[in-house]
Amino acid sequence: MKKFNLIATAAAGIEGLVGNELRHLGYDDVQVENSRVRYQGTVEDIIKTNLWLRTADRVKIVVAEFTALTFDELFEQTKALPWDEYLALDAAFPVAGKSQKSVLHSVPDVQAIVKKAIVDKMSEVYHRRTRLPETGAKFPLEVAINKNRVLLTLDTTGSSLFKRGYRIEKGPAPLKENMAAALVLLAHWYPEKPFVDPVCGSGTIPIEAAMIGHKIAPGFNRSFVCENWEWIPADISKSVRAEADAQADYDIELDICGYDINERMVDIAKLNAQEAGLLHSIKFKQMALKDFKTTKENGIIVANPPYGERLSDQEEVRKLYRQMGDTYRPLKTWSKYILTSDLQFETFYGQRASKRRKLYNGSLRTDLFQYWGQRNKH
Asked: Where is the THUMP domain (predicted)?
């Protein structure tokens, strides 16, 4: 089968996780770059990685890479590509664009020229004198120019991979599903350990943990734009999905809890977990953070508390951080992972973190403050 050069895009700070995921899925030639990871694969791999990548945003096919300093060069090199191998005669192919530190800096012009070059090529191949219909399947293209290097990609995903399909409702400032999965993976949680999200909001972090615990492919509940393309056989898609289904293990006993002070959020979390088919695996309960007590050991706490972005909220939020410190510090064998944009978090928590990791929650710079628990041997 034909192999494609592929890119999995990711939020800044979690590209390394996407690289690890690809290696775990059996891809060996994996190159991690800023906000993306390169690998190679067949049509089957395109479906498989869309289905299984928990922390990526989308999977793209690299159509071509070249240098262009003039619009002429951009046009000619784009037109020379075998577009008919990707696009059907009636393909709808919107072209998105971006340009950084390049001579060709006008994005609308760059998009228009790439579009025209593809139209010209397709018209020649298909002997069309009239406009291309663009009434068929969608093929989202992107032209990205960085330091005069042009990268032409075809998006196989469609709506971003974080859209798992189980979020019926979300609360204020929700965490994207792939970011929630990243936090669970960074916490090195194993399914036999207790897992707690004390400020669970609409339940995204516990749901992602349960999906990891049960070995459920995160994309099982949705489709991908490439599944409508005629050169991607439906039986391949079917068999990759069936294989993923067979790997899920619903019998594993998980100890996952999600708490929130707001009862309405707890109800929303339950609805979302039910939609994901995971309500039986997570205990959701209305509870204030400071009321958490446990005799269990070696657990993991992952929290995405409010950040207090508005000054009026800051005092409330910092009070919450103090409560976190008072409640969690005594839990010596537990590891705690707390994501916030408040860089003074440690002061209010009352303890230096074992490690901090910079992550972007959307465009917002946040830090994951990590407090590693002492191992209990028995």
From this structure: 45-156
What pTM was computed for the model? Answer: 0.95
* Number of structural domains in the chain: 2
Instruction: Give the pLDDT confidence of 2-50 residue by residue, as tens digits.
Output: 999 999 999 999 999 999 999 999 999 999 999 999 999 999 999 999 9
Same domain, 240 and 357: yes
Pair (135, 244) in one structural domain: no
Written as six digits, the tokens of 209 are 């943990």
Cβ(14)–Cβ(55) below 8 Å: yes
Residue-range definition of the domain harbouring residue 242: 177-218+225-371
Task: For residues 14 and 48, state if they share a domain.
Answer: yes
Best CA proximity match to 336, nearest among 374, 288, 369: 369
Closest CA to 162 of 207, 107, 106, 116: 207
In a domain, 163, yes or no: no
Q: Which of 146, 152, 96, 150 is nearest to 121 (CA)?
A: 152
Give the CA angle between residues 56, 65, 52 to the nearest 5°: 20
